[in-house]
Amino acid sequence: MTISIITANLNGGQYLEETINSVISQGIDSLEYIIIDGGSTDESIDIIKKYDTHISHWEVNPGQSFYKSLNRGFELATGEILTWINSDDLLLPSTLSKITKLFSSLPEVAWITGLHCHCNSKGDITERISLAPYSRQLLKYGFYEERQLYYVQQEGTFWRKSLWEQSGAYIDTTLEVAADFELWISFAQYEKLYSVREALAAFRYHDNNLSSLKKEQYLSEIDSIKSNFVITMEQLTSELFLHPQHFAYSLTEIDKNWKVQKEIIDVPHCYYKVYQKWLYKEYSHINNHRKLRLSEKLSKTKLFEEKQLIAILGNPRECRWLTDILNESNIKFIYLNNYNSDLEDTYNFENTPKEIGLIITLSNTSDKLKSKLSKLAPIHSIDEIIK
Predict the structure, then answer these.
(1) E-state strands within 22-89
(2) Is the pTM of the predicted complex or chain greater than 0.90?
(3) pLDDT for residue 334
């Protein structure tokens, strides 16, 4: 089983050599590595030439865009398994051995992704994030993006060539930064995305990440992609509530061979929360009613006049409409994280601003923690305010 990996590069010489080494050091014979350069003027070409004997094919096409370079690479690819790795990111050790084992052992799996994994500019792994498995129905309609849920990390996502061909065999070159998001939606029209409880590749954070420099454009392109889909409540609930069990795979190394293990992960509550958010979005009168009541309540306080600082206790993703109101009213706010189960006993008040005028809790908060927080400022749950 041959794995074809594409790297599209343009003046990525700062990290390109690390990327190349992370691929060619995988130690498998059935690797096809293709690099398409868009006309680099830095040291990139010299680096590519240095590793010429380890690269299956490389070419330079001046003026060619990033996604056109990827399409060119996939046109040349002959492997049964495909992916791409950007010229600043890294494949993790033994990834291709694991991928070979997974796709060989699991003929029902057409595409697969690993844990979210990040590294810093030096290439040091900074975090591995385990997430709930992906729902095909939510993926089909574009729910997996950071404003609603979590995203599919491109680094560490692999797919069969048959799925690539079935979905059209191209990356949308009308997009500049969000074509991977569009590709995942296209794949999900045909096949479920399976998760591996392993980190397979790392996204590198550095000062010139396009995903950061062009964040607004990225979100705009996502909105444009999602505008092509219409979903009904029946379509969504059929996936979330009739099929609550989702599967992921893990691998255990036994005598240098990888044993594939299947895990059943029951996560209906996770998807139910997403379903609720979708309802608030699609049936805006619910959301607007809450916003209206909260605006009226807050307008009767001194906070609107004095612009005092509000502290919000809980997950910021759970109540974006609250922050919208505060932003519209030019009221400053901060979040007090409530993710730690030991928060009641360990919460440190020393770094909390003293000028807080009100604390709003978004989720269930124990009386013990409320008692502590009440020493800082008046505290109310969001439900109390909206009543």
Answers:
(1) 31-37, 57-60, 81-84
(2) no
(3) 75
Burial of 108 (0-12, 13-18, 19+ CB in 10 A): exposed
Domain with residue 65: its CATH number is 3.90.550.10
C-alpha of 264 from chain center: 22
**Which CATH number does the domain housing residue 335 bear?**
3.40.1010
CA distance 321 to 101: 45
Predicted confidence (pLDDT) per residue in 235-251, tens digit: 555 555 444 444 556 66
pLDDT for res 173: 92
Q: For CA atoms 17, 20, 23, 29, give the dihedral sign.
A: negative
Residue 345, pLDDT score: 40
Domain range for 225: 3-251
User: Token digits for 185?
Assistant: 């939606």
Rounded CA-CA distance 333/323 in Å is 8
Q: Is 371 exposed, middle or buried (0-12, 13-18, 19+ CB in 10 A)?
A: exposed
pLDDT in tens, 73-107: 999 999 999 999 999 999 999 999 999 999 998 89
| pLDDT at residue 347, as a whole number | 44
How many secondary structure helices (H) and strands (E) does the chain include? Answer: 17, 17
What angle separates helix 268-282 from helix 233-240, to the nearest 10 degrees?
170
Q: Does pLDDT of 375 surpass 60?
A: yes
Question: Between these two residues, 350 and 214, which has the higher pLDDT value?
Answer: 214
- Say if 379 falls within a structural domain: yes
C-alpha 209: how far from chain center: 15
Q: Could you tell me the CA-to-CA distances from 360 to 330, 335, 357, 382 in Å, in that order? A: 17, 10, 10, 6
Integer Cα distance of 200 and 105 in angstroms: 18
Count how many residues are written for the chain.
387
Owner of token pair 């595409």:
111
Both structure tokens of 387 = 């009543």
Considering the domain architecture, whether residues 331 and 208 belong to the same structural domain is answered as no
